[in-house]
Structures are given as structure tokens and as C-alpha cells.
Amino acid sequence: MAGPHDTSENAAVASSPRRTPRPDKTHIGTHALKPSTLMMGHGYDPDLSEGALKPPIFLTSTFTFPSAADGKRHFEGITGKRPGGAAGLVYSRFNGPNQEILEDRLSLWDGAEDALTFSSGMTAICILMMAFVSQGDVIVHSGPLYAASEGFVAKVLSKFGVTYVDFPAGASRAEMDAVLERAKDQAARQGGKVAMIYLESPANPTNALVDIEAMQAARDSVLSPDCPIAIDNTFLGPLWQRPLQHGADIVVYSLTKYVGGHSDLVAGSIAGAKRWMDPVRALRNTMGGIVDPNTAWMLLRSLETVELRMQRAGENAAKICAFLKDHPKVERLGYLGQISDPRQQDIYNRHCNGAGSTFSLFIEGGEAEAFRFLDNLVIAKLAVSLGGTETLASLPAAMTHLSVPDERKAALGITDNLVRISIGIEDADDLIADFDQALAKV
Ligand SMILES: *Cc1c(COP(=O)(O)O)cnc(C)c1O
To answer: Is domain 306-440 given the CATH code 3.30.530.20 in the classification?
Structure first.
């Protein structure tokens, strides 16, 4: 990102009087610093803010130009007359210092060239899709998706002549080839193109993983690299899965979950090569939907501990699932640390660095037994969402997926005894004691 807080060479070259060239602080000599280190200061220069160690929250709607020529140059960047976006800050619908620092730091986790932030995960997803589709186009997506994402494709984009083809998350390379061929034919009939391949992995609440490498190979053979592969990495990112290394072009987050991590904000982001970010930035500039400065500041706070929190939550989940595995009141678990299908295990081994802390617990019985378990939990709170410091539990069939038709629920394995659990950073033994006493009441 180019702005007063940018540390990249480009911004230093295109400097205005207020922007001073700064050394590249992402390395010590040839030693590359890790994201966990860079979260404390990357992209922020205290000298530009009275020496404040932490960035102030910049509550301003607009930014003054040092000169009229600078103003013209900035607008050439904003309007696309000059490539590479604005060289400085212009107006807060386009960007601001807190958002730019946040975007710089988010790109580090996925090794992305650029990132964009939004007022929610859904804003990110909707603007991303709208930036790439035209009338007659087809979106190919894995299923199931987060319900609102699926609804946006099926109910909103369809109003503008965009259709979709979906495939089950666990599909093989041959099935992916077939689905892309089908989408290509469908696009040709509609006078459009396959505009995007949109994945979500692991799928919620089944935890089925998508083989990103296989999809990249299928895309390159059936379509072309001009059709971007985007992936919603909310459940495992940024720590446990880095999809850009496995063939995805664009990574998508609900920052509301693990990245925000304290269940106290709503935000979203995308990251990838500038080639993919630029059209999305242009549409965001037009529509709005950028995250606000206060939320961006809270996310900078969150990013300082994201690795610690996710590590602890992942360790907790592993201990708790080891306890639940053979419990007589537990029918089975849908946990990435205990996969039974060899193909899913193979995808896990290639794509994942950890099993996460969100899993499905199938209680012996049906809805009544699941309700009894949920109503007797003491530490774990009864709420939807995930990735926070606190442990949450919910019943998808009766809550997030209540409106899904029964046949589709059955096909997706969303049964009445499936309890969805997101483990937090409490003490693992305390959580085990809580689950143990709640299971005893079933
Ligand atoms: C929560 C969530 C979203 C939507 O994000 P919001 O920040 O609530 O808009 C999208 N995808 C996944 C996988 C999610 O869990």
C-alpha cells in the first residue's frame, strides 16, 4: 500500500514533503523477520505521529494535499489514470492510515503482495465477487459455503444474469475437471466466461477440505490462469493454512473470527497479487465498505497476539478432542486432528499446519440430547461465531442452518445431534471438566 505509513521503496520514490524514505525493516541483514515479530511495528513510523508508540486512531474524513500537483497525482492514482493506486491519502472512503497499516500487516501472514480491508467478511466477499463478474458469467464454488456467501451467489448475483455451478468440498481432480468443463459450457451458452472459482475450506460445519492444488491444476488445464481462485480461509487462517502457497490467487477472511479473536468487532479482508486486488480496490473506492479506523486499530491490537491465541486454542482443542474421542456419550467427532478418510488426510497433510480449534461434536442421540448438553455447559457460552478467546457452542441444524431444506441438510451431514464447538484460550482441563459434567447430564 502506498501512503504516508508505507515502508515500501515505491512510496519513498514517489515521496511528498511529508513522506520520508525509511529503511526496509522486514529484514535484519539477510535475515527475514517473521510475521509475529513484524506485527508490533510494521508499516507504522512513530516519528510521523509525535513519537506515539502505538498508532493514533485517525478520525478524519479527508486528507490535505501538500500541493495542487500532489492532489492531481493522487487522483490520477485513484481513478486508474496512473497504475498502482494513490501515492498518498485522499479521502477516507478510499483509505486511511490505520487501514493501510492493517493491510500491510495482513499481507505478511499470507505472503501476499497486497491486502484490502472491509467493514465485514461479507462486504469483502460481495465486493470481491462483484469486481470480477459480468452478465452471462459463471461462478464455480465448493459446497457448502458460509450461508450468506452461498445466498449472495444464488439470490443476488443471479438477478444480474450471473449463474453458478457448485461441487462438494472433498471432490477429486477428475470431478473438478468435469465441473469446470460444465461451467465452461454453461458460460458459453450464456455468452460469458467462468469469472471465478470460489472455495471455502474447511467447509462449515462438515470440516471437509478442498484440494487447492488439484483445483489449480484443473483450472490451468480446463480454463486459464486468468480465472482467479479465491478461498475463504476464515477457519484455519492465517496460521494453520496458507492457501496462496498451494495455488489460490486470493485469500478471503472474516476478521471477525480468529484474527479479531476477542468477539468484539466485525471486519473482513482479502489478500493476493496487486493484479487481483486493483479491480476490487476500485469497486471499494466507489461503493465504500472499507473497515473504519477504530476497528482497524482494534485489529492491529489483535494481530499482535494472533499467533499466541491460535496456538493456545489449537493445543486446547487437541487435548479436548483426545478426551471426547472415546467418551460413551459421543457418537463421533468432526475434527481435522482425527481424520478417517485417506484422501482428506492427504489434503490435510499437504495444506494444513494445524487442525484448528473449531470442530463438530456428534452427541449420542438427537436434538433433545444435544440441547441437554448445550444447556448444561458452564464455561462454554451458547452462541454462534468462532475464533474468539472464549469457547462457544451451538447447534447448526437449529440455528445457523435452520433455514436449509431438510434434504440439503441430510446431504451435508448436518444432523440434529451435531454440536458445533469453537475452543478458546481458557485452561484445557477446566474445559474438559465442563464438557464432562455436561455430557453426564445427557
Ligand atoms: C463469519 C464468516 C463469514 C462472514 O463474515 P462476517 O465478518 O460475519 O461478515 C464468512 N465466511 C466464514 C467462513 C465465516 O465464518
So the answer is: no
